[in-house]
Specification:
Length: 519
């Protein structure tokens, strides 16, 4: 989620309970949809029964604007259960992982007989979540970080294309698909207008059919950034304060603009990091707007592919061909500009320096998640070497130690503790990597040796995730936001007091628990 964005600091969703006080206005809280009485007299012996008994308690309902909260037309899923003071909004990319659990529960193939009323309701809630995001696109032209006006100066990773694909596969509703595709086109236009840079002449030679790449950013004004800086000073440790002080001693001046400290640019990069969902991390070296992230460009490819497939289903061949061409060009871009033949891995791309950004991070699995990488022995071996480096006993390393740049040696200027880093195992990364491994190991009756290795690695990753969730549930009776990837415990690096959670942890858990055992 925008995990920096979840405390509520005048527009900054960052994690804390300070929002009503800082906003200076009384906020009408959304109505809790779930009925807590469902828990009375029922033993919660396993994470599975806990999910079934509690998924409704993660719902909120507010169909009109109230103070900073943006009203939504349907009940919406939030990351935490009723009674928790944190993360009571609908967050953009969280909703994808939440939906994976709801759809798995609502449509699981191991079911014998007809689905239950509760299972049908879970699938309908997944549709509601997607419809709320579509409504936000129709209102704003994009999906904000969350349904708060103070979070409309940024988005989050564009998961809507993948969500639309998931819903259509579950429902086969072509009327719904038609509306969803129009919203996807609107959102895609926003990313191409607001977060896009064209290729240089040398880059165009390597990807001749591509126009450019996308990056994360923000639409905040200077006053907001300064408030954001004060927030970061409280959330991050002294290393950040030292860097911002150092940056503020240096200044620059744009044409027709007053002189200002470089610290403001640093704050812009940090707010862009919040848009990436990886708030905060050493991945971008505190230069997020200068990086074309591999995951962002892969997710936009999924949007483009969904538009191609969707318009093909609807029989609109003209639009289908248009989006097929756009998706093909992005695939060429990623396979040429983001791929390094020497390592065999895909990387983020440094826009400012004009070459790959050698900060090893789990987004390097995304071309396999999006099925962009060729399904060849060479690429399956590269995926296995990637998973061997990143997959630990209970999860996926968000980042590996920084490597020297191939052109210019540089050290990472992020010298403060961050949570999107080891030893934290984040459920979204577990999902992305598990799906990536599955995409290149499934579907072959006679699997190659490399496919079998990937299948085994996937099983070990999911087994470790389920074990960590179930062990900690046995000890605490709760799901948690993240776990320790070495030990499976709650001994993690926090930027705020970690709340007990539901959201993506429960969603990813249900998806894989049902796959391996059935409910």
């Amino acid at each position: 989620m925008q995990r920096a964005n979840r405390t509520f600091f005048i527009g900054i969703a960052v994690r804390s309970v300070l929002f009503p006080m800082l906003l200076g206005a009384r906020c009408c809280l959304a109505q809790n949809i779930g009925d807590s009485s469902i828990l009375e007299g029922k033993a919660q012996s396993t994470p599975l029964t806990y999910y079934v008994q509690n998924w409704r308690n993660s719902l909120r309902g507010l169909d009109h604007d109230s103070a900073d909260v943006i009203g939504l037309p349907h009940p919406y899923s939030t990351p935490t259960l009723a009674g928790n003071k944190m993360f009571q909004e609908m967050y953009y990319w969280d909703s994808y992982f939440i939906n994976r659990g709801l759809i798995a529960y609502g449509t699981h193939p191991q079911r014998s007989g007809e689905s239950t009323t509760d299972e049908q309701a879970a699938l309908q809630q997944a549709i509601n979540n997607c419809d709320n995001l579509i409504w936000l696109v129709e209102k704003f032209g994009y999906v904000p970080n969350a349904n708060r006006y103070s979070m409309t100066n940024r988005s989050q990773p564009p998961m809507l294309g993948a969500m639309v694909s998931d819903i259509y596969k579950a429902t086969k509703d072509t009327a719904w698909l038609n509306r969803a595709l129009h919203a996807l086109e609107m959102e895609h236009n926003w990313w191409m207008r607001e977060r896009f840079l064209g290729l240089s002449n040398s880059e165009r030679k390597r990807a001749p059919h591509s126009l450019g790449y996308n990056h994360y950013g923000h639409n905040a004004n200077d006053a907001f950034l300064l408030r954001f800086g004060r927030f970061l000073s409280g959330r991050l440790d002294d290393g950040f304060d030292s860097l911002i002080a150092q940056q503020n001693r240096d200044s620059f001046q744009l044409p027709n603009h007053p002189k200002q400290g470089k610290g403001l640019w640093l704050l812009g990069h940090m707010l862009a990091e919040a848009e990436s969902g990886w708030d905060f991390t050493p991945r971008f070296n505190a230069r997020c707007m200068n990086i074309a992230p591999l995951d962002l460009n892969c997710l936009l490819y999924i949007t483009e592919r969904t538009l191609f497939e969707g318009y093909t289903i609807l029989g609109n061949q003209q639009k289908a061909n248009q989006w097929k061409s756009i998706a093909k060009n992005r695939k060429e871009l990623i396979n040429n500009l983001f791929y390094d033949k020497h390592t065999g891995w895909y990387w983020d791309y440094d826009i400012a320096l004009g070459h790959i950004h050698r900060n090893s991070n789990a987004a390097q699995f995304m071309p396999y998640f999006a099925k962009i990488a060729p399904n060849t022995t060479k690429h399956r071996k590269a995926l296995y070497s990637l998973s061997s480096a990143f997959v630990d006993r209970y999860g996926v390393h968000p980042c590996l130690p920084v490597l020297s740049d191939s052109t210019k040696s540089s050290s990472n200027q992020v010298r403060w503790s961050t949570q999107w880093n080891s030893p934290n195992a984040w459920p979204p990364l577990t999902h992305f990597v598990a799906e990536a491994l599955g995409n290149y190991s499934k579907g072959n009756e006679l699997m190659s040796h490399s496919s079998k290795l990937l299948s085994t690695k996937r099983y070990e990753l999911i087994k470790g995730y389920l074990q960590s969730v179930e062990t900690q549930f046995a000890l605490t009776g709760r799901f948690w936001e993240k776990y320790n990837l070495h030990t499976g415990t709650l001994n993690v690096t926090n930027e705020y007091a970690m709340p007990d959670f539901f959201g993506w942890t429960a969603g990813v858990y249900m998806e894989y628990r049902i796959e391996f055992a059935g409910p």
